[in-house]
Design goal:
The complex is a heterodimer. Helices cover 13% and strands 61% of the residues of chain A. Chain A is mainly beta. In chain A, strands 1-2-6-5-4-3 form a six-stranded antiparallel beta sheet, with no helix packed on it. By secondary structure, chain B is an alpha+beta fold. Chain B folds into five domains: 79 residues, ACT domain (Alpha-Beta Plaits), CATH 3.30.70; 67 residues, Roll (Ubiquitin-like (UB roll)), CATH 3.10.20; 60 residues, no CATH class; 62 residues; 66 residues, no CATH class. Helix content of chain B is 24%, strand content 45%. At the A-B interface, strand 3 and strand 5 of A face helix 2 and strand 2 of B.
């Protein structure tokens, strides 16, 4: 019950995690809170309710200070894990 | 567009490493620093920021004990800042500004439009007298006054308009339509003799011939009368027309003094060059041409750029110095000069008017100062002259 209310609330204030994958070259993670791990082949970022793991090669991040980050490079997989 | 903006804003590439590298990466985000091209290799973080965020980044790195290194600075602002203390650039910019101001506010070229009979040079010379010449400060020119004065100085101009587009003065002119030569062939007139002569040929186009070929006439005698009788015997006046040739005499005196003041030109003339630069003349020589009296002529060769003449060129000035000297002539030389004078007179006043010189008798008169040729010419040429018939107007009934 409370989870349903939280979900609706986050959607209402647009704080839900949004992920947009463009081909295999770019992943946009909106409402990113923290970068947990970062190297050429792996980027792990934390959003409000989940952790997003992006695997690939030659990964780089562009942050335009809009709350989201663009992960660019050759993307191989995107993994989602629920927090806590 | 984005590249141009980045060029103006300035981009700084950096490299950061340290124990708290992830706190630094997230700190960059939390500080609101726009950071692009981020990548992390072997715990070394690379990225690009705008130059305005540099202080924030350095402060963050200091707080987290991160070793920060600026690897590259991209953009125009860094290039400009690098050269800001170069005196040459400042002087160059000042000179350039001065030059732009000069060519924007002074007359650099004068263009004349709409003229055909009056030459460009004449109009430009007249403009110079009214106060419009190359190098003149445009703001000082009273265009209305100059237009008026230009019109007055060249009577062949009916209308003038002077305007300026930038540093170019454009003079629009309209020339007066020349009055055609009026042949008043309806005005009653006689043809009379203009000289005492003997008639050698007569061609009558209209009128009644009074004097015949071979007859002698005095100046003013009627040769072809404009008063003729019609079929009914009534006298009517006409415009007499015809060609009358006669033989007549004319005396001319030519004088040559034994001593004459004459301009003697130096054998060597001097050439100098100037560089014309947007109306200003810069001498391209060290020593000035210093002569008391000289003839001067010049020609300007302008440089061309993409087929168009630009107001930069080289002026070739030629100075032909001369001095006045008293020249003595012997009797023989004086006679030779008199013969030349007579020949020149005949060429100019007889040959060019179709008058034939039948005979000439020359009398030489000399005194201590001069020699004189008194030449009696026997000439054959036109002796006809129109003379209007004045008729008393009939009373109006």
């Amino acid at each position: 019950m409370s989870e349903g209310i939280l979900y609706k609330g986050r959607r209402f204030i647009n704080m839900d995690t949004q992920i947009q994958i463009t081909g295999s070259r770019e992943v946009l993670v909106e409402n990113c809170r923290k970068i947990l791990e970062y190297n050429d082949v792996f980027v792990k970022v934390k959003t409000w309710d989940m952790t997003v793991q992006v695997w690939g090669s030659g990964l780089s991040v562009n942050d335009f200070n809009s709350g989201g980050i663009y992960i660019c490079g050759k993307i191989q997989s995107v993994e989602l894990m629920r927090n806590g | 567009m984005n590249a141009m903006l980045n060029d103006i804003r300035g981009i700084i590439c950096f490299k950061a490493s340290g124990v708290k590298i992830y706190r630094f990466i997230n700190g960059v985000r939390e500080e609101g620093i726009v950071c692009t091209n981020q990548h992390c290799t072997d715990q070394v973080f690379y990225g690009q920021i705008y130059s305005k965020d540099r202080k924030k980044l350095e402060s963050l790195a200091r707080n987290l004990n991160i070793e920060l290194e600026i690897t590259e600075k991209k953009g125009m602002r860094f290039k400009v800042l690098r050269y800001r203390w170069r005196a040459g650039i400042l002087i160059g910019l000042t000179v350039l500004s001065g030059f732009v101001f000069y060519i924007s506010n002074t007359v650099v070229s004068i263009e004349v439009c709409g003229n055909s009979a009056v030459t460009d040079e004449r109009i430009i010379d007249a403009l110079g007298e009214t106060g419009i010449y190359k190098g003149r400060f445009i703001a000082d020119i009273n265009f209305l006054e100059c237009e008026r004065r230009l019109r007055l100085s060249i009577p062949e101009l009916a209308w003038t308009g002077i305007r300026h587009t930038g540093s170019r003065i454009v003079v629009d002119v309209t020339e007066v339509t020349p009055k055609p030569e009026m042949v008043l062939d309806d005005v009653p007139c006689n043809i009379v003799a203009s000289k005492n002569a003997q008639i050698t040929s007569v061609i009558v186009h209209r009128g009644q011939l009074i004097k015949q070929k071979g007859e002698a006439v005095k100046k003013g005698d009627v040769i072809i009368s404009g008063v003729v009788e019609d079929d009914k015997g009534k006298s009517i006046t006409r415009h007499a027309m015809g060609e009358i040739t006669g033989i007549y005499k004319e005396d001319m005196t030519f004088t040559q003094y034994y001593t004459e003041r004459k301009a003697v030109y130096d054998e060597k003339s001097t050439n100098k060059k100037y560089i014309e630069f947007f109306g200003a003349r810069i001498p391209a020589f060290l020593k000035k041409a210093e002569f008391d009296t000289y003839d001067y002529n010049e020609c300007t060769n302008y440089f061309m750029l993409f087929g168009r003449k630009i107001p930069i060129g080289i002026v070739h000035a030629n100075y032909a110095p001369f001095s006045y000297e008293e020249t003595e002539f012997s009797q023989e030389e004086a006679e030779k000069l008199l013969s030349q004078q007579a020949a020149l007179y005949e060429k100019n006043f007889y040959d060019s008017f179709g008058i034939t010189v039948l005979d000439r008798s020359i009398e030489l008169k000399t005194d201590s100062e001069k020699a004189e040729y008194i030449v009696s010419y026997t000439l054959e040429g036109n002796i006809a002259e129109d003379r209007e018939i004045f008729i008393k107007e009939a009373p109006y009934n």
